[in-house]
Amino acid sequence: MNIEENLPCAKKMVLIDDDPIYRAIMLRAAKNEGIVLHAYDSLLSISITSNMEDYDAVIIDYDLGELTGVDIASYLSSVFGDIPMVLVSSSLREQKDGGKKWPKHIKKFALKTEGYSPVLAMAKELASTLNYDQPMQ
Questions:
Q1: DSSP letter string over the chain?
Q2: Which of 30-39, 66-75, 120-129 has the least mean pLDDT?
Q3: Cα–Cα dist 66/110, whole Å
Q4: In sequence order, what are the residues at sequence separation of 6 or more whose Cβ sits closer than 8 angstroms to the Cβ of residue 110?
Q5: C-alpha torsion sign, points 4, 73, 44, 81
Q6: What's the pLDDT tens digit per position in 8-48?
Q7: What is the pTM of this model?
Q8: Alpha carbons 14 and 39: distance in angstroms, whole number
Q9: Nearest CA to 34 among 1, 2, 60, 8?
Q10: How far is the C-alpha of 45 from the C-alpha of 4, rounded, in Å?
Q11: Which position among 1, 55, 68, 88 has the lowest Cβ density within 10 Å, counted as fewest Cβ atoms?
């Protein structure tokens, strides 16, 4: 039996982060909070057949090698439509990346140093929001 079958009302989220320790911490924290979290180390790790519409929110690390979290957020927005996103980083980032505004689906920004709980709380809040077109807070 799949664990997701036991959690029919659980929020379902995706984490894209190349740090295996952060992924492990977030997976454990999400499980403890009753959140179904699928974690990937890159955009390439996500199956092309994945239906992002099944997810309630996406958490993306800013620093992902050659691509930034902003690049991935732009791609996910264009391919999978309206899905709220939390951008996380170990350092403070501006809402403009190289002079270009972040995609509208990035609704929140969090520092990893704040811990896993605030990041999950932000993602849960966004997952519960019906109006995905609200600007970033």
A1: --GGGG-TT--EEEEE-S-HHHHHHHHHHHHHTT-EEEEESSGGGS-TT--GGG-SEEEEESEETTEEHHHHHHHHHHHH----EEEEESS---SEETTEEPPTTEEEEEEGGG-HHHHHHHHHHHHH-S-TTSPP-
A2: 66-75
A3: 21
A4: 86, 87, 88, 118, 119, 122
A5: positive
A6: 456 889 999 999 999 999 999 999 999 999 999 988 887 65
A7: 0.81
A8: 6
A9: 8
A10: 21
A11: 1
| Distance (Å, whole) CA 86 – CA 115 | 14
Sign of CA dihedral 119, 125, 128, 131: negative
Report residue 53 as tokens: 């519409």
Q: Are 64 and 124 in contact (CB under 8 A)?
A: no
Residue listed under structure tokens 């957020």: 73
Residues 6+ apart with CB under 8 A from 75: 43
Residue count of the chain, please give it.
137
